[in-house]
Amino acid sequence: MFVLPPPPRYPIGGPYGATGITGIVPMIETNNTISNPTGPEWQFLVGEGTYVLKEDLHLATPPPHPSEAPIVNPNPLATNPQPASVGTKMTLVRIQSRPPPFFYRGPSATTLSLGGASSQDQSGDARYSTEGGMSSEDGRGTSTSDAPNSATLGFTPAFGEGNSLLVPSQTKDVNKRKKPKNNVTKSNSSFISRVIVNESLSRRMTDRPGDGIFAFANINRAFQWLDLSSPNKQDYFTKILFTKAHCLSHDVNMVTKGASHIDVIMGFSTGEIIWWEPISQRYTRMNKNGVINNTPVTHIKWIPGSENLFLAAHMDGSLVVYDKEKDDSQFTPEDDETSVHGSESGHGQNGVKPGTKMHIAKSVHSQNQKTNPVAAWKLSNQRINSFAFSPDNRHLAVVSEDGTLRLIDYLREELLGLFFSYYGGLTCVCWTPDGKYVLTGGQDDLISIWSAADSALVARCQGHQSWVSSLAFDLWKCDERNYRFGSVGDDGRLCLWDFNVGMLHRPKTSARQRGSVSGPAGISPRSEAASPLGTLLRSNSLYEADEYGDGVSHPVEPRSRIPILPPVLTTVIDTHPACWLDFTEEAIITSCKDGESTTFHEAWNQMPNASRRLTGANRTRQNMDQTWDNGGHNSPSGGGVG
């Protein structure tokens, strides 16, 4: 029996669903709403305590623009191209810094600006990527926590250091930030449909606490600026509605942020990019009409330590570096003959051997730097889903739809390692706070943990029942040996995981997992290289059997040789696919594709920080012992939500 598709989400019959005798367009509710559900079904138990749902913020999903033809009978099997969409992704920002977690206090790497002076102190609020989340997608949802630079790596040069053409022009007032060109509220651009600014914006900015959290959120063709420290957090500061383009990714510059200036970049389904300064309500449109790259921007992030440069991943498999203050021009690759390591480009489309090489279309050291792009690299012929910068600001982890993880020294524009998923694409990526491990989530419903120093897969995490969409670390529950991270997926589940390096000494004869392993990728070995863990990983490596013979590509490891990690918590938090999460000192915040953002607060957050850290470390060791005492297949703890 044929089943009709569900009715359209919005009324049809005319622009915005105009119906009735008068022909007046009815007002569709587009305001955010907030609720506070209570009851045992809205909480879950982890080893160290209980999380309780504090609030459920629903961001209004904008209807199609009136200029779009109404869909009379939506067919879910239709092959008509639709705008790319990622659901709701957020960035959390504190203007005034809080003391960093104890784990990160001490020496840290310093990134110098191209002008030779130290970049603005990021000890309070700069962060590593989650999706980068610190994701990704990336995504990079982003964290409100501190930049956890590895103390073992010392000084990090700036991206493009040595190229005098990239030194930013000095202004008379060094404390005055340059603003974008155009006023967004008075714009007559066809790209922007409408801008709504809160009438009480100035008063609310003055009255809010200095250490309160701002949130920037994209949902389809809308972008919102919210104040999560306000009791009326559903009342946005600014809401921008774009005409047809969907915002797929955004990021906030942690170097230039301040009480009077915030730099935000947004990437769109049309390939265009907007640099927006929300306090002055000014913006600049970049890559207009796809003059540099006309494919959607899947992920975008500021380059660590830079005031002007940011990196955008495009759906054609390219990574492009832009300067927010440069104009755009028609881009023609400068070098069509060579790619990384000098290998020839005649292996596949656009000079990229399928799944192996990284083609440098324009180097950051090029002498042609009058216009964008600053640099351009071709990695794959399939879309790049997410990327994340390492905590030491030296390396870049990139995951693609072709199922590959690439580790890149982006300062030297060199591919260090290429790793493969068991099957399907990889969707999200992040680094551990100390930069020793890279985590990836994929379409195989698994999370993979890779050792950066040993270039090897060390474990797989099994707990999701659909694609993993976002990863993030809880910085307040990590220490020198124990890691706590979370993940969400298209199954609407939130999973919490504890990972302890020492557990890999245990026998894993009963572990059955899928994954890949690899050999050295050129990253400087750390202390683990001489440890039993490093010996174990190298002994399991298939590096000698590298099918490409270049020391960079690494084949897939048999499932039986990789241990499985179960979650310490798995619970359904939403009926819609979840697409983002992040941790604060007091809470876990998630979002889904339907526009819902949920905040779970720690019921024990009045405990002193030292006690909580001790609890977390003891909890991690206890969970790891239980995991391996049960042969690596213990049942996760915690109750269900929803």
UniProtKB/TrEMBL annotation:
<dbReference type="InterPro" id="IPR051362">
    <property type="entry name" value="WD_repeat_creC_regulators"/>
</dbReference>
<comment type="subunit">
    <text>Interacts with creB.</text>
</comment>
<protein>
    <submittedName>
        <fullName>WD40 repeat-like-containing domain protein</fullName>
    </submittedName>
</protein>
<dbReference type="InterPro" id="IPR036322">
    <property type="entry name" value="WD40_repeat_dom_sf"/>
</dbReference>
<feature type="repeat" description="WD">
    <location>
        <begin position="419"/>
        <end position="460"/>
    </location>
</feature>
<comment type="function">
    <text>Component of the regulatory network controlling carbon source utilization through ubiquitination and deubiquitination involving creA, creB, creC, creD and acrB. Required to prevent the proteolysis of the CreB deubiquitinating enzyme in the absence of carbon catabolite repression. CreB deubiquitinating enzyme stabilized in a complex with the CreC leads to the expression of genes such as those in the proline and quinate pathways.</text>
</comment>
<dbReference type="InterPro" id="IPR001680">
    <property type="entry name" value="WD40_rpt"/>
</dbReference>
<feature type="region of interest" description="Disordered">
    <location>
        <begin position="102"/>
        <end position="187"/>
    </location>
</feature>
<feature type="compositionally biased region" description="Polar residues">
    <location>
        <begin position="108"/>
        <end position="123"/>
    </location>
</feature>
<feature type="compositionally biased region" description="Polar residues">
    <location>
        <begin position="141"/>
        <end position="153"/>
    </location>
</feature>
<feature type="region of interest" description="Disordered">
    <location>
        <begin position="623"/>
        <end position="642"/>
    </location>
</feature>
<feature type="region of interest" description="Disordered">
    <location>
        <begin position="326"/>
        <end position="356"/>
    </location>
</feature>
<dbReference type="InterPro" id="IPR015943">
    <property type="entry name" value="WD40/YVTN_repeat-like_dom_sf"/>
</dbReference>
<feature type="region of interest" description="Disordered">
    <location>
        <begin position="510"/>
        <end position="530"/>
    </location>
</feature>
<keyword id="KW-0677">Repeat</keyword>
<dbReference type="GO" id="GO:0045013">
    <property type="term" value="P:carbon catabolite repression of transcription"/>
</dbReference>
<dbReference type="Pfam" id="PF00400">
    <property type="entry name" value="WD40"/>
</dbReference>
<dbReference type="GO" id="GO:0032153">
    <property type="term" value="C:cell division site"/>
</dbReference>
<comment type="similarity">
    <text>Belongs to the WD repeat creC family.</text>
</comment>
<dbReference type="GO" id="GO:0051286">
    <property type="term" value="C:cell tip"/>
</dbReference>
<keyword id="KW-0853">WD repeat</keyword>
<dbReference type="GO" id="GO:0005634">
    <property type="term" value="C:nucleus"/>
</dbReference>
